[in-house]
Predict the structure.
Amino acid sequence: MESNGNPIKKVGPAKQQRIETISMLKDSGFDLLLLANNHIFDYGRAGLESTINEARRQGLDVIGAALDFSGAYTPIIKNIGGLKFGFLNFSEAQFGVLKEDLGGDFSAGYAWINHPAVNSIIIELRKEVDFIVLFAHAGLERYDLPLIEWRNRYREFCDLGIDFVIGSHPHVVQGYEVYNGRYIFYSLGNFYFTDDTQSNQEGISIQLEIAADRECKIEIIHHSIQNGTATRIWTKDSKIDVDSLNYKLRDEYYQTAIEDVYKEAFWEVCFPYFSSVHLGFAPGDTLKGKLKKLIKMLFFYKRGFEYRLLMLLHLVKNETYRYITERYIEFYH
């Protein structure tokens, strides 16, 4: 939310919302805010504190980010319809992830999905509740197949006791599967995100009806942004075919198709970033672009050096980019 904070040093845009956004969410029926994401700390500790304070003033719960480690990683437990539910929220490592060992401003931020404490938190929570829902903010943007490493991590969550993994961040819908009786929704796509292309302004929501005997009924709700409003649409009118996305998760399709995802994402996403760190040439560079890089390298190398260092930090910190780079070079190159 808006605050007196300044944008942190990072690559990519710094985003914030008007303070009245939280009251609008409350009026729309939301009662829990998921804060573990790669933009929650764009305006530093002040921005995060403003968000948490306003949410609490409005009577909304928050999980996934806080001003200290305990607050960021502590689950929320709610009694709903006579059943006890635990909720967790984690994100992959990007700018804003909480680093308790570094202290200072790094002691605030969001909860990291691969922190060594996460598995133990899940195991302990399992003893206290009937069901656990884990909201995960991770994955490769704008691809409708989840990476192998994220599938393995989400399945590991289920093995530890998570009943529902609900994913976000890719900005497109990915399929869902039932793994050992537990549900994994890899990505719901966009709910309300006007910065994206028109084709990505559709998404899905999940309505779960859960009985005490663990029987679960799922309703997929399609929606899109129409005239500036998130609007429910009929399945037949949606461009998103959930059944087709689910088929893509089956071994006969996935094992071959995922290789193409790693190959394409390495050259289209990761390699251009790596090349920009050292002002090297990337496959998509035009002759004009190559000349600009050559001139910068020869005469202006120190200009923009800090940004290039931040880009390098982003590439080595973020699991998704690292997974793509490692797997492509080791197995597919």
The mean pLDDT is 92. Residues 253-332 form one domain. The chain has two domains: 21-241, 253-332. DSSP finds ten helices and 13 strands in the chain.
